Amino acid sequence: MSREKTIQLRKSVKPFETTDKKASVIQILNTIPPFFLLWVLAYMSLSVSVWLTVGLSVIAAGFLVRTFIIFHDCTHGSFFKNKKANDTLGTITGIMTLFPYEKWKREHSIHHATSGNLDKRGTGDIWVMTVEEYRAATPLQKFGYRLYRNPIVMFGFGPLYLFLVSGRFNRKDAKPKERRNTWFINIAVVVLYTATALLVGWQAFLLIQGIIMFVGGMLGIWLFYVQHQFEDSYFEDESEWDYVKAAVDGSSYYKLPLVLQWVTGNIGYHHVHHLAPRVPNYKLEEAHESVEPLQKATTITLKTSLESLRFKLFDEANKRFITFRELKTSAPARTRAALGEAMSRPKPDARKS
To answer: pTM of the entire structure?
Structure first.
């Protein structure tokens, strides 16, 4: 893509970077109240059938994912025009989703600024190793990476780590505003959870809220994973990296059934979101349909997205993801110089994914 086309593409999306107060309010009303209603119904259904409770809790988890999309838009300042309104709603939905608003906003902005950049990995993204980095790694590092990329670990233990560890603590050099916001959300969560548990009983609370948070967290990690981990995704060294190419070529269009598209707040149009983060979620589809070049982004479906579970390492030589099995049959590291370059890159911090 030439520089002229790149500039024109960003200009084409610009008109969609406007908030619609009415649309935002409607989204709040059709997302947050139904979530709490489903929670109450799940509790009431315990007297009927525990399986009905489980089913309602799973549905509520879908609304939690949709609540997270509102939280996500607030971190980009795209849900409301007013910054204070975004920060207030972002903090409220941060309490609901167990994510610290200011901390997540900072890390996610870094993710957008570095997505697909091999020299700036490690903040707010999925841990990706290149073929050469993996070959040069120690046995312990290889074991850790294989463990991290194991679906059971990533989607099974991942939600627990995000909610109980990663989201509860500030980085050492966090600014006072970020620290205060994290601790405010932590205290609010403790108070809210304790009050609810005392009201409905610890067993009922753990069953319902546990299912909601685990399923919601698992779905959230899956969405984040699959939107960048497809076979011909975009990764380049700093010298070759381009923001627009990283957005359009390194983010997928996850074509979902309409119900799931609604539940996930159109985040399947991830290529549009990465190109223009200020486009609110309810305008992502319109931007995709209106700007023809965006329709050429890599399209994945529910069926084809499952293939991404196989991809483990990025092959810089062939510009694609490969499996561990393919690694055994691929050519060894190209040159000692390339190997040295790979090992000299900053090591990603898997804890920040």
So the answer is: 0.88
